[in-house]
From TrEMBL:
One of its GO terms (molecular function) is oxidoreductase activity, acting on paired donors, with incorporation or reduction of molecular oxygen. Its cofactor is heme. The keyword Transmembrane helix does not apply. This is Uncharacterized protein. GO terms for biological process: vitamin D metabolic process. Belongs to the cytochrome P450 family. Pfam families: p450. It comes from Umbra pygmaea. InterPro entries: CYP11_CYP27_families, Cyt_P450, Cyt_P450_CS, Cyt_P450_E_grp-I, Cyt_P450_sf. Heme binds at C468. Keywords: Heme, Iron, Metal-binding, Monooxygenase, Oxidoreductase.
Length: 528
């Protein structure tokens, strides 16, 4: 139970990617130069006095220690910082092992690369029963998060189309720009009604509304009113349902099954799912009806993502419900928090903000609105978001379960069914890969002939075939919104808020409300 507590405390993300925890260890890993080949110690099991090294040769964090750190030292909501602490204590590879469960934590770029280059054909993140239980109960299909094996592969092949290729996302430029336009209107409105005339308070909430509206307008091909002054009742119910499902996930995984009928938490968790599916179902059914009408009257069926899923694939309606819900849940707080961290970092670095402004105004003269194609001419904008994601990888930890084969990592041999925890936060803070790691330096990512960091040093969207399916959509939303905002405003921190720290909740979120001043570029900055 003790281990279950600790394990579950980290398995609560919308991305539900966190597998295993931490543990001590000093793996004798030889480093490799970027672009070089792996040294033989990484590909062959090493031996100590003739014995092949295994997880038994790694330092192991005991349940007692883990619980002490999590709950007494208070790392339970700062698991990303715990990665740094434990890396310092034990080195880049260590075991968390209790009872039947073993997870190998990896926190160096070399080990991460070695693991991901050995990814299996159908990579797995491990147990997703927290999300599948409700669907099994209601007969709803699984989506890309929860599906596994060959079925997952087939599903991804369908879902990747019209979403993952950079040229696919360009198609959504106009849809996203309409939502960005509403965000800008809302910023103007909030500034005007603020005491100073330029302040936007609780930015995370505003960006959450923006991301939900953005992803819904792509997935449902319908606007749901998140950016209106008065959010429609059904949309508000939907937002509350998402929040309820996430906040009670914790209770569901932590408490034993027999307590479900005695305590109110499981019921609330299930009612969260009910609300999510009720809303999604309604919008999907409406689209289905509209498509049917067009087919019945011999009209051409046009539309984007949902239309494609409903009319151009062999997916059943239940599979569409399952997949759309997962895409939606995965795409909101990841994107909104990344935007929040990016704007927070920009507000504290006027020099970077100025370079970005110069780039945007050079590419988008006068009152023009940046388009999806324009973004390709803005490398600094991309570098700013990439650097924000390095400093605040909203998914700071992720898991891989090697299902099919035994594997050798860092000279240690692990049997199949071993779970690995990839400690992305610690890896992206490593000063060997990123000199002055705590500094916000977008120029690290500019291709100007200088050596660039090892690409595995920061992979905020994951890697390979199981990597984020929504990456291009998320980037498009962030680029279009940030470029418009920076073109119109200089953003400054609210001095009353002070330094904001990250908490590891559903994803990395701010530990307090973030407020920013939005100074209109023309008159207001000149007047200062
Ligand atoms: C800044 C925004 C985002 C970040 C940083 C992010 C990050 C990630 C990461 C790290 C993974 C796991 C990859 C792996 O295991 O290798 C993932 C998976 C996933 N993401 Fe995202 N994501 C973002 C936005 C989105 C959006 C907008 C959507 C939906 C359109 C989305 C849908 C998904 C789905 C469905 C998966 C599971 C894929 C699978 O298991 O096959 N994400 N994301």
């Amino acid at each position: 139970m003790a281990f279950r507590l600790a394990q579950n405390a980290v398995q609560r993300s919308s991305h539900c990617l966190l597998v295993g925890l931490n543990a001590p260890a000093l793996a004798m890993v030889r480093t490799r130069r970027a672009g070089g080949t792996l040294s033989s110690s990484l590909t062959q099991p090493s031996t100590s006095q003739g014995k092949i090294r295994t997880s038994d040769d790694l330092p192991r964090i005991k349940t007692r220690e883990m619980l002490y750190r999590m709950f007494i030292k208070g790392y339970y909501n700062r698991l990303h910082e715990l990665q740094l602490y434990e890396k310092q204590l034990y080195g880049p590879m260590y075991t968390v092992g209790t009872g039947n469960f073993n997870a190998i934590a990896l926190s160096s770029v070399e080990l991460l690369e070695e693991l991901l280059r050995k990814d299996e054909k159908f990579p797995s993140r491990g147990d997703m029963s927290l999300w599948t239980e409700y669907r099994d109960l209601r007969g709803i299909g699984y989506g890309p998060f929860t599906e596994e094996g060959e079925k997952w592969y087939k599903l991804r092949t369908v879902l990747n189309k019209r979403m993952l290729h950079p040229k696919d996302s360009v198609k959504y430029g106009d849809v996203v720009n309409k939502v960005v336009g509403d965000l800008i209107k809302r910023i103007y409105h909030l500034r005007q009604t603020s005491p100073t005339g330029d302040l936007v308070t609780n930015l995370s909430n505003e960006l959450y509304r923006f991301s939900l509206e953005g992803i819904s307008s792509i997935l449902f091909e319908t606007r749901i009113g998140c950016l209106q002054e008065e959010i429609p009742v059904e949309t508000q119910d939907f937002i509350d349902s998402i929040a309820r499902m996430f906040s009670y996930s914790m209770h569901v995984v932590m408490l034993p099954k027999w307590s479900r009928n005695l305590l109110p938490f499981y019921g609330r968790y299930i009612s969260g799912w009910e609300g999510i599916f009720k809303f999604s179902r309604k919008l999907i059914d409406m689209k289905m009806e509209a498509i049917q009408k067009r087919v019945d009257t011999d009209q051409e069926v046009d539309g984007e993502y949902l239309t494609y899923l409903l009319s151009n694939t062999n997916m059943t309606i239940s599979e569409v419900y399952g997949s759309v819900a997962e895409l939606l849940l995965a795409g909101v707080d990841t994107t909104s928090n990344t935007m929040m961290w990016t704007m927070y970092l920009l507000s504290r670095d006027l020099a970077v903000q100025d370079i970005l402004y110069q780039e945007v105004s050079r590419c988008i003269p006068e009152d023009n609105i940046p388009s999806a194609q324009d973004v390709h001419r803005m490398p600094y904008l991309k570098a700013v978001v990439k650097e924000a994601l390095r400093l605040y990888p909203v998914v700071p930890m992720n898991g891989r379960l090697m299902v099919e084969n035994d594997v050798i990592i860092g000279g240690h041999s692990f049997p199949k069914k071993t779970t690995f925890t990839m400690c992305h936060y610690a890896i992206s803070q490593d000063e060997k890969t990123f000199p002055e790691p705590s500094k916000f330096k977008p120029e690290r990512w500019i291709r100007d002939g200088r050596a660039r960091p090892n690409p595995f040093g920061s992979i905020p969207f994951g890697f390979g075939v199981r990597g984020c399916v929504g990456r291009r959509i998320a980037e498009l939303e962030m680029y279009l919104a940030l470029s418009q905002i920076i073109k119109l405003f200089e953003i400054r921190p609210d001095p009353r808020v002070g330094e904001v720290k990250a908490l590891n909740r559903t994803v990395l979120v701010a530990d307090r409300q973030v407020n920013l001043h939005f100074l209109e570029r023309t008159e207001e900055i000149a007047a200062l």
